[in-house]
Design goal:
The chain is mostly helical and about 270 residues long. About 80% of the residues lie in helices and about 0% in strands. The two termini are about 15 Å apart.
C-alpha cells in the first residue's frame, strides 16, 4: 500500500499535470469558439491526463490499481445514501458562506462567475455534453487521485480522521479559488468519510459526480428563473427559502445515518 511520501509525491505531480493540461487545452480556443463546448472539452482532457498520470505513477511503483485506489465493489445502498447526502451538504455550506461572501464580494472570482454564466441552458446536446463533462470527468479523476491514492497514502501514517482532513485540505487548495476551495474542503471531508467508512471509492465517486451535475443544473435553473440577474448577483443572493435549508438538514442527517448503519468499516 502507498505511504505518505507516495501520496505527497503524487500531489506534487498533480500540480504539474494541471499546468500541462492548461498549456495543452488553451490553444483549442481557436478551434472551439463556443465557450461552453471549450470548457467541457478542456475539462475532459484535464481529467484524462490526471488518470493517465495516476496510472503511470502507480505502475512505476508497482502498486495494483484496484487495491491501492479502493476500487472495491460495494453495496448499492452505500452508493445511494452517499449521493443523497451530498447536495444538502452543499446547500448548507453555501448558506453558511453566503453572509461572508455578501460582506466580502471580492471573494467571488471571475472564474467562478464564468462557470455560473456558462451553465445557462443552451442547445440540448451542447448542454448535456457540458454538464456531463463537468460532472463525470472531475469526479472520476479527482476521486481516484484524492480519495484513492492520496487518502490511502496519508492514512498509512496519520490515521483515518487526520488523513481525511488533510486530503480534503489538499483538495480545497488545488481548486485555486477561495469560495470553491472552502466548498471543496467541506465536500472533501464528506467524500473522505464515505470512502473510509465503506472501504470503497465508488460511493464518493458517484456522490462527487452527482454533486457537480446538480450544481451545473442548479446554476442553469437560477439563471432561467432570474434572467435579469447577473452570475455575480446570483452568487451573492440568499438562495433558497429557509424551509428548504431545514429540509436539506433533515435529508443530510438521514442520509448520513442510513449510510453509517449500512456500512461496516471503522476508522482505525
Amino acid at each position: 500500500m502507498p505511504r505518505v511520501g507516495t501520496a505527497l509525491g503524487f500531489y506534487v505531480l498533480l500540480w504539474a499535470v494541471l499546468v500541462i493540461a492548461s498549456g495543452v487545452t488553451l490553444p483549442l480556443k481557436r478551434f472551439i469558439p463556443d465557450a461552453q463546448l471549450f470548457i467541457a472539452t478542456a475539462g475532459l482532457i484535464q481529467a484524462a491526463l490526471i488518470v493517465l498520470a495516476l496510472g503511470a505513477f502507480l505502475r512505476s511503483r508497482g502498486f495494483a490499481p484496484q487495491t491501492t485506489l479502493g476500487l472495491t465493489p460495494t453495496r448499492f445502498g452505500l452508493v445511494l445514501w452517499g449521493a443523497v447526502g451530498i447536495v444538502p451538504l452543499g446547500m448548507i455550506t453555501g448558506l453558511i458562506l453566503t453572509p461572508i461572501i455578501q460582506m466580502m464580494p471580492w471573494l467571488l472570482s471571475k472564474e467562478l462567475e464564468a462557470l455560473v454564466r456558462l451553465s445557462r441552458f443552451s442547445a440540448l446536446q451542447n448542454y448535456l455534453f457540458y454538464a456531463l463533462a463537468l460532472s463525470v470527468g472531475p469526479a472520476l479523476s479527482e476521486e481516484l487521485a484524492f480519495r484513492g491514492l492520496i487518502l490511502q497514502g496519508l492514512r498509512s501514517r496519520l490515521g483515518a480522521v487526520s488523513a481525511v482532513v488533510v486530503t480534503a485540505l489538499f483538495f480545497g487548495v488545488i481548486h485555486l479559488d477561495i469560495v470553491q476551495g472552502v466548498l471543496a474542503f467541506v465536500i472533501g471531508l464528506y467524500l473522505g468519510y464515505l470512502t473510509v467508512r465503506s472501504g470503497s471509492i465508488y460511493p464518493a465517486l458517484v456522490a462527487h459526480a452527482w454533486n457537480n451535475l446538480w450544481a451545473t443544473f442548479e446554476a442553469g435553473l437560477w439563471q432561467a428563473a432570474n434572467p435579469q440577474m447577473s452570475p455575480k448577483d446570483i452568487l451573492l443572493s440568499a438562495g433558497y427559502p429557509w424551509w428548504a435549508y431545514v429540509l436539506a438538514g433533515l435529508v443530510l442527517i438521514g442520509a448520513v445515518y442510513a449510510f453509517h448503519r449500512a456500512s461496516v468499516r471503522d476508522w482505525s
